[in-house]
Design the sequence.
């Protein structure tokens, strides 16, 4: 299974970040996996942002829930992250992962750097 993140590398404060994870070698509707977004700000640890289950159910980190939306396109085998009202604190490397539980990874994407700056 391969995961590949894509999207904006530079976002201005207050704007919306949109990232896509394209999956190959496995279907995002395969039992029983969770497809999550994780980020790592510079000099800090990993933070789980949210996940979408193979069934389509979504789960979010409570601290980010008000600004986060995860969706999927099953025909294209992709899932997406939308983060609203970004600030410089959202600067991080963003990863998409697959695992048996939200935030638990069997497979990782390579990550994509997102910088929030005016």
Sequence:
């Amino acid at each position: 299974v391969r995961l590949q993140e894509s999207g904006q590398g530079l976002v201005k404060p207050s704007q919306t970040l949109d990232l896509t994870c394209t999956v190959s070698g496995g279907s995002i509707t395969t039992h029983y996996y969770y497809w999550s977004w994780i980020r790592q700000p510079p000099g800090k640890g990993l933070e789980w942002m949210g996940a979408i289950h193979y069934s389509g159910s979504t789960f979010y980190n409570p601290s980010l829930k008000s600004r986060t939306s995860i969706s999927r396109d099953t025909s294209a085998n992709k899932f997406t992250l939308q983060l609203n009202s970004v600030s410089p604190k959202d600067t991080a490397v963003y990863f998409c992962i697959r695992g048996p539980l939200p935030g638990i990874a069997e497979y990782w994407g390579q990550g994509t750097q997102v910088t929030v700056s005016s």
